[in-house]
Amino acid sequence: MPFLTAAVLAAFVGYAGAWYFELVEGNFALLLFLATIVTGLYWLAERLWFLPRRRAAAAVLEQNAAERNAGLTARGIVADDPKLADAKQRVLQQPWWLDWTAGLFPVILAVFVLRSFLFEPFKIPSGSMIPTLLVGDLILVNKFTYGLRLPVLNTRLTEGTPPQRGDVMVFRYPPKPTLDYIKRVVGVPGDEVAYLNKKLTINGQPVPVSRLADYFDRDAMRYFRHFEERFGERRHRLLNDDERPAFIPGAEDFPFKQNCRYSVEGVVCKVPEGHYFMMGDNRDNSLDSRYWGFVPDKNIVGRAFLIWMNFGDFGRVGKFE
């Protein structure tokens, strides 16, 4: 068992190392699931087989010591074995290969359940959601609002609440589902979304916007036009770049592309059933549904709702719209 365990642990470390050095495309959900299964099997083996055997060996050791002491006492010799407690402790001690498997199972199980069904942390890698989310923001994603899903397979278990316009949603990038993307829900099933001349219209109704003071992007070292956009009572901010054209260059082929009409003014799309139209708040610097199409329900990960840390700016911690 020690050699088998060493091989299993080496496989996990090797996979993680290859992922870190970008030699393979990693899947953390799958890795965590396998770690939970493997450590769980060791935990069961420990409870049902290895621990009872160690306890039986300790009992035999204690019985032998008692018999020896009884014999010594019968001959008038004071029996005192100070090493017995240490010997029992060594016999009962969990070996390293169980300590690194069965011993970690409760922690790994807790992380697996928390991450799979309650909350999952993400780090914002790009500026597509500026000014709402900045590069380096560490966020939490609610995994149950839109319905619980099976880990790895992402199959829906419960219905939950459907995504609403204005939600900030994490999802699996449709052209490459191993990647997680974050954007804002702009169109829900059945909506006709028009983004023409940098103005958003839903089902023929312009989405209300208010002009704000220009936004200074410290990374780009320049100002952008800054607006507040409203979906009903929900408000969020967005940016426009006057140097970028309104038309959508380089739109890919994607399922239901026939539902979209592209022109020099922008794009108009009819959102199919079971799909969502996503856009970044940094409207002219976001690779989103305008370019690669609709997000199917099966790709949904969860609703982002909280910045729990930004090591460059502690003041950003808190909820966001």
From TrEMBL:
Q: Please name the CDD domains in this protein's record.
A: S26_SPase_I
Compartments (UniProt record): Membrane
Which residues are named in the active-site annotation?
A: 128, 183
- Write down the membrane topology: Single-pass type II membrane protein
SUPFAM superfamilies named among the record's database cross-references: LexA/Signal peptidase
Gene Ontology biological process terms, A to Z: signal peptide processing
Offer an example of a GO molecular function term for this protein. Answer: serine-type endopeptidase activity
| Keywords annotated in UniProt | Hydrolase, Membrane, Protease, Transmembrane, Transmembrane helix
Major localization listed first in the record, in broad terms? membrane
Key word Membrane present? yes
PANTHER family the UniProt entry points to: CHLOROPLAST PROCESSING PEPTIDASE (PTHR43390:SF1), SIGNAL PEPTIDASE I (PTHR43390)
Q: Which family does it belong to?
A: Belongs to the peptidase S26 family.
**Name the UniProt record assigns to this protein:** Signal peptidase I
Per the record, the gene is lepB
